[in-house]
Amino acid sequence: MTTLFFCRLVRYDAPIMATKKKAVVLLSGGLDSTTTLAIAQSQGFAVFAMSFQYGQRHEREIAAARAIAASMRVAQHTVCDIDLRQFGGSALTDDIAVPVAERVEQIGDQIPVTYVPARNTIFLSFALAWAETLGTGDIFIGINAMDYSGYPDCRPEYVRAFQTMANLATKAAVEGTCSVRIHAPLIQLTKSQIIRRGL
Fold this sequence. Notes:
The chain is α/β, with parallel strands linked by helices and 199 residues long. The protein has one domain (5-198): Rossmann fold. Helix content is 33%, strand content 17%. It has a 6-stranded mixed sheet, with helices on both faces. Strand 3, helix 2 (60-71) and strand 4 form a beta-alpha-beta unit. Helix 1 (31-42) crosses helix 6 (191-198). The longest helix has 16 residues, at 119-134. The termini are far apart. The relative contact order is 0.17.
């Protein structure tokens, strides 16, 4: 039987004040998620970073995520192994050629083969579970709708829908002790604006 997933938790020595609010930040190791992590910290959150090794071709991002988590002194960093190669269906997890476009116009208006089925829903579900055990409802994700390449799970309506679902699905939200809030601070920024914000 194949193991579907497991997580490794790394604790850092970054001091966390008891009164500091916590947030789970999805950290891929790329520009957008790193900028999102910095935004969460600038808003006063103690960051609990979550990364995923899901069978993607660009696994070097995990090494980058670990280095970023250590450098930015997050409270904890966990790397979850989820083998999405079992399902395939994406150029990032299957034996499908990754398309190359030199200009935005060449991308077209179809959902590209680099879309990984349900990836952000899976990631946010893991983040939701960890957030509830941490006693927080704040989750940050670095998705972007302005520059996105047709991914349906990078749209504002997707974020709103997931947040609504999360508030119906968690014990803390149902009991009224902790509502869920999905933060997507980059969702309306262009890539150049994200770079400037990150700097």
